[in-house]
Each structure stands twice: as C-alpha cells, then as structure tokens.
Amino acid sequence: MSGSATRTRMRETLESIRDRFVADGERIVLFTTFNFVPGFFETNVLPLLVGESAEDLKNNPQVRYGLNDELRELRCLVVCDQSTQPPAKGDLRYGLLPVGLPNGRFHPKLMLMAGKLRETGKPGMWLAVGSGNLSLSGWAINREVIGAVPVCLQHAEAMLPLLQWLLATANDQLRGRDVKEEGGVRAILGDLATRLGDRAWLARFAADA
Q1: What mean pLDDT comes out for the span 53-81?
Q2: How confident is residue 124, by pLDDT bands cut at 50, 70 and 90?
Q3: Neighbours of 133 (CB within 10 A)
Q4: pLDDT at 64
Q5: Are 27 and 75 spatial neighbours (Cβ–Cβ below 8 Å)?
Q6: Who's near 148: CB < 8 A, 6+ residues apart?
Q7: Model pLDDT, residue 152
Q8: Contact 58, 39 (CB under 8 A)
Q9: pLDDT confidence tier of residue 209, bands split at 50, 70 and 90
Q10: Which residue, 96, 71, 94, is CA-closest to 85?
Q11: Phi and psi dihedrals of 97, rounded to 5?
Q12: Most buried of 8, 41, 118, 152 (most Cβ within 10 A)?
C-alpha cells in the first residue's frame, strides 16, 4: 500500500462516515490517538468533518471563522497520550484531553461519531478503528489500515469502559482546578457514554462499512 493510497483511504473513511449523518444536525465526534499534531488536525481533519477543504482554510480567516462557528453544532474532542507533549491547540472550538498511564501509554486510534443518520432519520453512531495517529505521518507517510462499522451492542459494551475511564480522568484533571475547559471535554464524554448505554442509538448488527 503506497503512502498516497493510505492517505486516500483514511480520508475517504472519515468522509464516508461524515456523509452518513445529517449535516445540519448536532453531531458529536471523539478521536483518540497516541501522538497528536494540532496544526495538521486543524487544517486537514477538522475541515473534512464540516465538508470544507484544507485549501479553503489557507490564508482565509473568514473561512476559518466559519469553521469555528460550525463547531458549535459539531462538538469534537481529541484524546491523546500526554507523554508525547502535544503542542498547544489553536483557537478552533474543539476539546483536547491529554491522558497518562502510570506504567504504559494511551494507544487506541479510533473515531466515534454520533448524530442523526441521513438514511433513516434516526439517532445512530459509527466507529472507525485504525492504526494511524492524527498526524501527517499517520495519514500520509506510514502504511496504515482503517475500518468502519455502525455501532451495535457489542461495540458499545466494549467502548463504554473506555468512555467512563476517560470521563473519570477528565474529572480528576479539571474538577476544582483553575483550568480552562475548552470544547466541553466532559460534556462530550458524558453524552457519548449516555448514547452508548442507550439501545435507541445502536444498530441491531454491524454491517459492512
């Protein structure tokens, strides 16, 4: 698999999941990654979520402002490993939560999206799991794989402990501290955990992506 094919596949997977949801309705998106590069994410991944292109954002503050405005409805959170010491995020409206493990690394690489499904008009969730980080190397240089499925009960049961752990970790980091909570970190985690525990949001079975 070439680097360009890898990039296209990851981009196409993200776009295919995005297009399964009603664009003008509320959506919640969680990304987890080991290494995180905010500059790459803000100019290459976030625009895809709202249907913009990276080229539209270059040297165009007005388009960037429009993207930030759309992030009111599309609530987004990135969780990464704090040992990588990610650079500070930009001024776009999304959450960033670096987490740490006492004897290991935070290494899952997934995307979870929840919202109203375009095909049925009902609530639903889709999950993408891959090997690439949210970085240029993960999207365009290294050989990576990625797959996507509608979230069914089996996925929800596997995902819920992770969401609950992330929420507890966020509470430990942010509760009672003079820390600005950008992007509604705990609200996103709490809302996704609630949806994972509600069968109305789950597919009856996992179909091919």
Answers
A1: 76
A2: very high
A3: 25
A4: 65
A5: yes
A6: 13, 16, 17, 126, 127, 128, 129, 209
A7: 95
A8: no
A9: very low
A10: 96
A11: -130, 100
A12: 41
User: Residue type for 151, please?
Assistant: V
Stretch 19-31: mean pLDDT: 92
Following DSSP, what letter does each residue of the chain receive, concatenated?
--HHHHHHHHHHHHHHHHTTB-TTS-EEEEEE-SSB-HHHIIIIIHHHHTT--HHHHTT-HHHHHHHHHHTTTEEEEEEEEGGG-PPPP-SSS-EEEEE-BTTB-----EEEEEEEBTTTSSEEEEEEEES--BSHIIIIIS---EEEEE-BHHHHHHHHHHHHHHHHHHHHHHTTSS---TT-HHHHHHHHHHHHT-GGGSBSS----
Q: What are phi and psi of 78, to 5 degrees?
A: -115, 130
* 172's tokens: 């430990």
